[in-house]
Design goal:
The structure is a homooctamer. By secondary structure, chain A is α/β, with parallel strands linked by helices. Chain A is built from 9 helices and 11 strands. In chain A, the strands form 2 sheets. In chain A, strands 1, 2, 6, 7, 8, 9, 10 and 11 form an 8-stranded mixed β-sheet that branches. In chain A, strands 3-5-4 form a 3-stranded antiparallel β-sheet.
Chain lengths: 254, 254, 254, 254, 254, 254, 254, 254
């Protein structure tokens, strides 16, 4: 068999085109590919919900790759250990209740689990705006290529429709802030000082629907609530992703 | 149990420090975390060889994340299908002999496999130079933090020792070029025009020890040889990584 | 009738996808949307030849928009006046033999004529490399999105096949230089001093197939030949585009 | 006949100089060369009104060149189809009521129509300020070369007088914002969320004289009114340009 | 004896790792390595207090290196002469009460004294945030590598605990501003106009605990208080550092 | 006594002016303030030789501040331990023959020693060129402010005369390269691969007068000779500085 | 006679040093070297008042060099013609009451006149702050080298004393804004729309002492007053400079 | 009389347009507005020769403004004192044979003299290329706006004709290098080391016609000849300008 460059190009274009068309309408769009976004998307997809993860960077994983201060290790507390087991992530107990994982493995295993669950990934895509019609709900996202944004070129975006949106963009809470900036009734209070224990204990309370159709998870949840900052401990993020998935599924009647 | 920020910091520092010390001396350093580097490192580690993968970016995966022209799909030909199966990567047959995978899944599964095999990852690390002693072999790498390099700050590097080095840095063939630039007897001819079929067919021939202690794989192998350019088809890369692992293992007497 | 954002997105995606697939194989790829490229592509398409114009910028028109020193006027000499007439561009006689047009009109009319003739435009696309197989002919182009290039992201390109390629990239002669840089038997001598009359008189001689499958036109033709530089007079460019179209058509047996 | 570089330079300088002098005073200055600005200027010029289009970029066409997400297609709805016909733009029906055009053709044909109607183009010109005398009307524009602005050099602008000004600068509504920033009684509310149908249905209402002598059209009209955002559908833009032309003509008593 | 690169690397890693672990908890963290920070840290360490100096730049010394307008001389007034003597800094009397030192010597001697006193230095470290638990006191600092910050990479920080923190970051008063920005009850009024005499006379009054656990010294003290600006006279800075050390020691019960 | 800003300014200006005038002619100019330059300058000044150290950065210390990979520790071998003792730098034995110092202390103590010995420092000064008269010797340096260089402003330099020049600019060997670039009979071979032991053992041989009036020391000595690269071990640098001082003193007949 | 580089350096250093020392205290500091600043300084110096002109750029002349839109011509109206005559600037009458000068000549002649009158120039000097003592008057300026500012280096400024300060920094009104920003009782209203006639007619009214010790002239005067913007007509600037000189001289009792 | 913005604009446009047209053909184009270019142009114009000075920066004066190391003083030796007198530049004798002038005055007086002599200035204009026809002489210059060049925009240049060209662009010798780069028979050897006396003594020998139609003066003359570098002493520059004027006048038969 001979290899043909044009056939390779065609294969890539056709496969992705079909997926893009298919995801012009979906159940859930999760924005941001960090730990809470990945956990949330995976658990939604496992329930058979049509879910895409939109990530502005080239790679998935967000702030997990670098561990703490470039030492590629991540700490997870007891409460979330079952999620490490669920996603097949190996760990070592450092002290009772503190488990250390390798950051690269954590990203890879979470992402692989999302793929296996059926999450569709849209990387290098920036969310520019939200679509809100007369019902006052976030009903879609206005998206563009990230490199277009970086280049400062004037190119119009496209729009995808989704029944629910999950803001998993970290402490920037970018989707929530868009709504606030354009006058929607939503206030992003911003992350407070570092206090890991409090932040971890409150994150599930803050994981909720903050605007019709928009759920927040992970650091974005704490940022909207004005909650304390978390350290490089990821249990709360994973649990928040799980909680967000439950809330969204419930909203979708699954 | 209460969470303590200092304990989290200590856990990260101690775990990574031990690993770093442990890998100051290793069997094989694979430079570059694209498909051939990942495949090579995984297969070496599976043989029980002590192997680290050094990647200058924050994330692992190299040019795979973006598929072709940001359409996140990758094509693999028949010959390499068995490696997709081996790493648990799902695919769809586009035309006979052409299999399409999702780029995000491919990266995640390859990386996860490397982790499971015992590969140690050093990301955000730039290779600045090589160590060559009186035996004329590449016996180690001079490394630094990538952000130091980006910032243009004057900070000295450290050195790690390795019996074999694999240059999997893509068409830049950065390790090979360092040796060439400093007068080592090695010529990097540079990638030729695009001709996927020829490039794929020759890559295994070019996967070899090009300087005592230095092996090349993937696009770096073709770049050193002046071979044609490959398209966004990744079978040859994976097979080249496999070949490099065999050659290195043989050299190490495993 | 109601307007639906998703339908709008789908319309754009489907229409363009079909065109992209259709142009993975074409008769002629003209690289560069300045006057000679536009004239060449238009005249080829008018003969029913399947021809695409690939332009790295967002807009078509190259150096014509700014006239001379931002004074948006263009001068055309007697010999090329018939082409102005052909493309419906209005002009004023400045002195016998010198006709002045408005640069904006000239770009718009040339581009409109190309559209009417059936030229397909691929803007914001950068040519990264050429495809050359065993026959030693330029048989295709390796392309990528321009914003990817500007952003410095690592994303692989795709490949399109074409029977003939026209380098209309101006005095950089970018396609010809790629071939030279990678060792093809082609020397780009570079533009010489300004001497409008000589440059205009010789451009048709230099408009030719300079490498199997690669034709040069406009300033690229003079740059390859080491010919003199032209001033802001565009007759020769248009005539060179016409000549290139004739040569390519002849080669294609049309 | 011989070609002379100095004659070419003189032709360009004299022709453009005469035009520049002639347009130091004009009926209408349209700021911004996107779809609504082009449509508005064309229709004004067709009525014999002396109208210039001032564009800060090198090329005319604004955000149209890139279609949606760099897929160079534009969608127009039924209501505006007659304008496509009027400007000779070809289209294909995608679904009932949705017509798809090629973005490059759309720009070229709209611009060509403007030229034929007698619109004078001033590209690479930035509007720095407005001139308002004792009558409290926008009576002129303070302009400078765009490259001077980019270079950060300290060079004073010049002033042109116009009876009416049309702000067609897109969602930045730059002329309106200048007036707001300097304390004029005009509030730019800023574009709201994406809701194509509403935005398209309201744009004609928002196309109006928002400050004595200043009309807004296209996205600038919606931005001033705090109206919803439009998607990559251009019917409303063209119709808004048409409306603006009618209002301006009426004001001028034509 | 032979030199081994790996042993050198190991020595550096192990020695620094032990120190870093040791300083995850400390008595006092002084932020900023200018004159007041150095004086404060030295005097604290001389009392046996465990004190680290955290500096974001590569070198210690802050604004002292450049003297005034790059003329590397520093002026100290009579009141602080005894501190010059204490730190072994040579000087020349310019006029009665005005002593001139060399800026390079001043930095070197102050830093050497700090080292001899047992101050531990953490350079190239940026303070990103503060840790405040339920007691409402600044109980630690959230730190990261400066080059990570410069590079704009997404890498999480680590946290160190300290009983007292000294903000010696100059007129930016960066730690105090963090607390203000996040809603802590602390107002940074900002430096007023230049009035050296008043600024010098008031600095000791402004050197105080401005928020539970946070002391300010040097220009940061004046900036928080809205006090006048000091000129390139360094007596007040040194005396303020001394005062801060006294206040902190008192608070620690030493 | 009252403080007066103008008196402070005058004190700084007059003191530095006198020094600058005094050093328009000197015995030795050491270029570069890293370990070898500092050691060399100190030992020369201790012999009563009039010596200035010219450093392009704001701070003195070169690559020492950052230790290895930002871990602020430095290793010195047995042979150079006596120099640590001489300069009062504290150290800890890591393994027999390997002594670890703190990088901040090492810079501070070396610089303080240089000050005490009478070295005059000119920081923020860039060497642009060398002065060579009819005798073919480097007889002076052409200097400018570093910020002028960074700003890209066109400001002429000044010239200082020196009997001997020491290039201590590290592996760039900047002074030596200037002479090479302008056609002086001097070849800078460039640093070879990392081989700490060989590099350390040969550095004293390479520390020599490489061009009439120009001595090289530290990494610059190895770079000129094409010698191997040193790791973050600083014994050889200090010993090379000592050797350079001996050679220069001998040349000056001291 | 032989030329000696060191003597040249010494001549430059000594001459300028003496001047700098001499101007640490002066009667008037004019900030900004545009038309009003130059006129003001010249007329003050002609009265024997000790006056320096401080300019942040390398060259004197401000916005005059570029004329209007890089066409290097300047227009002056009848009222100010006598100042052109006074400074020996040639002109041509364009229309009755409008005189056109060459911008280069205008700068050169104004600057030469200032030199002849005894104005001392300090170019490449940025004013960072003002000195205000207990009397609440601007009594001096805090200055630094402009390249230090551009380079972002941390270098402290010096201070010069002056009885009166003239803000001639154009529409930025930089000195006035510094006072406003730091809480001084002074409001900078900012320039209004373009209305040349009104702006020219009011500028003399706005030329006044706006804060104890601080006078404003030229566009800075209009900017403080919220007055209209002037076009590229310079009569008002020159007259305002003249008026400022009168007011300052009166204040000084000359 | 009322002031009208449009009349001001018209005055500027018409006056400059007439001059530009007039100088499309001239006797001499002097490129570069430093001391030698200014002296040369002035002396040519005084002989009634039609001469323009083309300067790429906004201001005239080149490297003179900054004196030496930003100390704004310039030294001139005895031989050139008569030129200071001729141009009305005041000076002070520093030592016998060394005269110090103020750099700002020197620029202003030289420029004013050039204006009075009738030199026409074209500032903000970059020379992109030279025009050489069949006679092999430099017969014109290809020019563009400097801001266009800075902005990286693609805008074509215009051409002006001149019988003689003088390269006064300093040590870059930009016009000469253009000719060398494009294959003209001219070698630019590049400036050698600093040796003021030799450089000053030889500069008149090197001031000559180095290519048919192209004369070099000032540092450009020494750079072409590979002569030594001059310090901040300007006598030779002025004398070289004078010599160049004599040679050019002779060539023109004046």
């Amino acid at each position: 068999m001979t290899l043909n460059e044009v056939t390779i190009s065609r294969a890539i274009l056709e496969e992705q085109h079909q997926t893009f068309l298919d995801y012009l309408e979906m159940d859930v769009a999760v924005v941001g590919g960090g730990p809470s976004g990945l956990a949330c998307a995976t658990l939604l997809a496992e329930k058979g919900i049509k879910c895409a993860l939109i990530e502005k960077k080239l790679s998935i994983g967000g702030g997990m790759w670098g561990g703490g201060m470039m030492f590629p290790r991540i700490v997870v507390q007891e409460e979330a250990r079952r999620l490490l087991d669920r996603f097949g992530i190996t760990y070592r107990e450092f002290e009772p209740g503190y488990y250390v994982t390798k950051s690269v493995e954590t990203v890879a295993k979470l992402t692989a689990a999302a793929c296996d669950a059926g999450v569709e990934f849209f990387n290098l895509i920036t969310v520019e705006d939200v679509m809100i019609h007369g019902d006052g709900r976030v009903g879609g996202l206005v998206i563009n290529w990230t490199p277009v944004d970086i280049s400062g070129l004037h190119v119009d975006p496209l729009t995808v429709a989704c029944t629910c949106t999950v803001d998993a963009t970290g402490h920037d809470a970018m989707v929530a802030r868009m709504i606030e900036r354009k006058g929607g009734s939503l206030q992003v209070k911003g992350e407070s000082f570092m206090w890991a224990e409090r932040a971890e204990s409150q994150i599930l309370n803050h994981t909720r629907e903050v605007f019709p159709g928009l759920f927040v998870t992970g650091m974005a949840a704490n940022a909207v609530a004005g909650e304390c900052r978390m350290g490089p401990i990821f249990g709360g993020m994973l649990l928040s992703g799980e909680r967000a998935a439950e809330l969204v599924a419930e909203r979708l009647g699954r």
